[in-house]
Design brief:
One of its GO terms (biological process) is chitin catabolic process. By secondary structure, the protein is α/β, with parallel strands linked by helices. The protein contains 15 helices and 22 strands. It folds into 2 domains: 294 residues, TIM Barrel; 113 residues, Phosphorylase Kinase, domain 1, CATH 3.30.200. The longest helix has 30 residues. The structure holds 2-acetamido-2-deoxy-beta-D-glucopyranose (6 copies).
C-alpha cells in the first residue's frame, strides 16, 4: 500500500538527517601563549572545543622539537589546567619557527635561513622532527599537534607536501602502536592558497590535516603601508585582499570547506592619520599609532577607547565587516562583537569546520568569545525544523489520505487550509554614528613616560628582561602601563627588539602593555 511506503520513507529520512547532524562538530579553537602573564587557568575553556598551547620550538642542530625551559612548566600543566573548566576541551601543542623568523615573516622582511626551512629539506632531518613532536605531545598529555609556520616560501612549500605525508603517517602508526586515539593534526595557512607565486600543496593538506587554520588577518599593516587599510576585512568591493576572496580561492582549488577554520584576530591596528578629517579607508597615514607597530590587543583597544576616546564610539561597517574607532588622528580597525558575529555567520554559511582565535589572551572579559558562542546557526535550526516538520507533514498527509479515501464514499471534497511557515531572518549587523567632533588625542611623549615611571626610578622597576629593565607606571588618566627600556648596554640588538615588537599584538597581556613611543633617542630606546 502506498501509505506504508510513505511512512517507511519518512522514518529513513529522520535517521539519515540525525546521523548527518551529529557527525558535524563546530570547532572553536584558540591559541594561548606560554610565557604570557595570562594564566591558562583563567581561560574560560567552556567557550572552546580546542585550545592550542603555543609555542614549542625546533633545535637547529638535532631538529628535535623542544619546549623552551622557561615554558616547560606551562606546557606540562596546560592540558590538565584547561580541562578543569571543560573536561571535553582538546589541548593541542603548537610548533613555530622561533621568534626571530616569525617576527620577520609578519613584517614581510626576508627570512634568514630558518630552522624549519633547513629541517624540511631532507627526509633524514624531517624524521627526528616528526618523531620528537609526537613524543613530546604525548609526554605532556596533548591530544593534537599544530604547525604555526609564518610563512613558508616557495622552496619550503615544495617540500611541505612530503613533510605532511610523513608526519600524518607517523601519527597514524603511533596511534596503532600505542593503542591510543590518533593525535589531531592541524596547521596555520595563509588566507589565500596562492600569493606572490607561492602555492600550498592543497592535495596533501586536505589528505593529511584534520583541518587548517586560515590566518585571515594582518592584510594591511601600518608599518608597511602609508594608507589606512582593513587588516581583516571579510569583503571589499574594490580589493581582493579579503577573507572572502581568499576563502573562495581555497575552495576553488578543491580544498573542502569542512577542513578550514576561519581565523578570528583578537587584535587590531592603529594608524596615525595625516589629515584627521580624512578618515576613509585608504586615507594617507604617517605610520603606526600608539604602539611601535600599531598592533593592539582587543582588551587594550577597549581600554584605549575608554581612556582616550572622549566619548567617541566605535563604528561597525557591514560593507567590509570591520569595526573602526577613530578619534583625532588615531584610526583603529579591529574586530568587535558585531564583526565576530558576522564572521561566524559567514563561516557557518560557507560550511567551514569552525573558527580559530588568535589569541585568547587578548579577549576582554571573554566578550568576543561569548559573542562567538552566541551566534545561532540559522541553517541548522532550519534543518532541525525540517527534520521535525517534514515527517509530521508526511504522517499527516498519510492519515489525511487514508481518512479522505475512507470517507470519500460518504462526503464530497472539502477544501483544506494551507499554512505557510516563514522563518525569520534576523540581521546581526547594526551601525553606530561616529562622533565627528572628538578632540585630538595626545600622543605619548618620552617626557610623559619619564613622568609616568618617576624618571625610570628603581621604585617603579618591575624587573629585568633580556633587553633591559621593565618599569610600571601610571598615565595621567589613571591607565596602568609597563614600560620596557632597551638599555644602551644591552647585548641584544635592535633586530631582536624589532622581532619582539612584531609579535607584541599577538602576545599582549596584562603586564606586557603596548610598547610605547617608538623613537630611538640617542642610546635611549623605550
Ligand atoms: C608559567 O609557569 C611559571 C613557572 O611555573 C609560572 O610561574 C607562571 O605563572 C606560568 N604562567 C602562566 C601564564 O601560567
Ligand atoms: C642554533 O641555536 C643556538 C641556541 O639557540 C644558537 O646559539 C645558534 O646561534 C643557532 N645557530 C644557528 C645557525 O642559527
Ligand atoms: C626560502 O627561505 C630559505 C631560508 O629560510 C632560503 O634558503 C631559500 O632560498 C628561500 N627560497 C626562496 C625561493 O626564496
Ligand atoms: C609502529 O610500529 C612499527 C612496527 O613495529 C614501526 O615500524 C613504526 O616505526 C612504529 N611507529 C611509531 C610512530 O612508533
Ligand atoms: C580580483 O581577482 C580577480 C580574479 O583573480 C580579477 O579578475 C579582478 O580584477 C581582481 N579585482 C581586484 C579589484 O583586484
Ligand atoms: C563602509 O565604509 C565605506 C567606505 O567608507 C562606505 O562606502 C560604506 O557605505 C560603509 N558601509 C556601511 C554599511 O556603513
Amino acid at each position: 500500500m502506498a501509505s506504508k511506503n510513505i511512512l517507511v520513507f519518512s522514518f529513513t529520512f529522520i535517521f539519515s538527517q540525525f546521523h548527518y547532524s551529529t557527525a558535524q562538530i563546530w570547532v572553536r579553537s584558540g591559541y594561548w601563549l606560554a610565557g604570557s602573564d595570562f594564566p591558562a587557568a583563567d581561560i574560560n575553556s567552556a567557550l572552546f572545543t580546542h585550545l592550542i598551547c603555543a609555542f614549542a620550538e625546533v633545535d637547529n642542530s638535532t631538529y628535535q622539537v623542544f619546549i623552551p625551559s622557561s615554558y616547560a612548566q606551562n606546557f606540562s600543566v596546560f592540558p590538565s589546567v584547561v580541562k578543569r573548566k571543560n573536561p571535553s576541551v582538546i589541548p593541542l601543542m603548537s610548533i613555530w619557527n622561533g621568534q626571530a623568523s616569525t617576527g620577520q615573516s609578519i613584517r614581510g622582511d626576508p627570512v634568514n635561513p630558518s630552522v624549519l626551512s633547513s629541517m624540511i629539506e631532507q627526509p633524514s632531518t624531517r624524521k627526528p622532527f616528526i618523531d620528537s613532536s609526537i613524543k613530546l605531545a604525548r609526554l605532556h598529555g596533548f591530544l593534537g599537534i599544530d604547525l604555526f609556520w609564518l610563512w613558508p616560501n616557495s622552496t619550503d612549500l615544495s617540500n611541505i607536501g612530503a613533510l605532511l605525508d610523513e608526519w600524518r603517517a607517523a601519527i597514524s602508526s603511533e596511534a596503532t602502536n600505542s593503542s591510543q586515539s590518533e593525535l589531531i593534526f592541524t596547521m596555520a595557512v595563509r588566507y589565500s592558497p596562492s600569493l606572490q607565486s607561492v602555492s600550498y600543496p592543497v592535495d596533501s593538506i586536505k589528505k593529511n590535516l584534520y583541518w587548517a587554520h586560515l590566518v585571515a588577518y594582518d592584510y594591511h599593516l601600518p608599518l608597511k603601508e602609508k594608507f589606512t587599510g582593513n587588516h581583516a576585512a571579510l569583503y571589499n568591493p574594490s580589493s581582493n585582499i579579503t577573507t572572502d576572496f581568499g576563502l573562495k580561492q581555497w575552495l576553488g582549488m578543491r580544498m573542502p570547506a569542512n577542513k578550514l577554520a576561519l581565523g578570528l584576530p583578537y587584535h587590531g591596528y592603529v594608524w596615525t592619520l595625516v589629515n584627521p578629517k580624512d578618515t576613509s579607508v585608504g586615507a594617507p597615514a604617517s605610520g603606526p599609532g600608539t604602539t611601535l607597530d600599531g598592533s593592539m590587543g582587543y582588551r587594550f583597544i577597549k581600554s584605549f577607547i575608554q581612556n582616550y576616546g572622549y566619548g567617541a564610539k566605535p563604528v561597525y561597517n557591514s560593507t567590509y565587516v570591520v569595526n573602526y574607532f577613530i578619534v583625532g588622528s588615531t584610526w583603529i580597525n579591529y574586530d568587535d562583537v558585531e564583526t565576530v558575529r558576522a564572521k561566524i555567520s559567514y563561516a557557518k554559511e560557507k560550511g567551514l569546520i569552525g573558527t580559530n582565535v588568535f589569541a585568547v589572551i587578548n579577549d576582554d572579559n571573554w566578550a568576543l568569545s561569548l559573542a562567538a558562542a552566541g551566534v545561532t546557526d540559522h541553517k541548522s535550526k532550519r534543518k532541525l525544523l525540517l527534520i521535525i516538520l517534514l515527517p509530521i507533514a508526511f504522517i499527516l498527509i498519510v492519515v489525511a489520505t487514508v481518512v479522505f479515501y475512507r470517507r470519500s464514499s460518504l462526503f464530497k471534497t472539502k477544501k483544506g487550509d494551507a499554512g505557510t511557515i516563514i522563518l525569520g531572518n534576523r540581521t546581526l549587523s547594526g551601525s553606530e554614528n561616529l562622533d565627528g567632533n572628538a578632540p585630538t588625542i595626545q600622543a605619548f611623549s618620552f617626557a610623559q613616560i619619564q613622568a609616568a615611571t618617576g624618571n625610570f626610578s628603581n621604585e617603579f622597576k618591575l624587573g629585568e628582561g633580556g633587553y633591559g629593565p621593565v618599569y610600571k607606571g601610571k598615565l595621567p588618566r589613571g591607565q596602568e602601563i609597563a614600560v620596557k627600556r632597551l638599555s644602551a648596554s644591552s647585548t641584544q640588538g635592535l633586530e631582536e627588539f624589532k622581532n619582539e615588537v612584531s609579535l607584541t599584538a599577538r602576545l599582549q597581556h596584562v603586564n606586557l602593555v603596548q610598547v610605547l613611543d617608538s623613537a630611538v633617542r640617542g642610546m635611549k630606546r623605550c
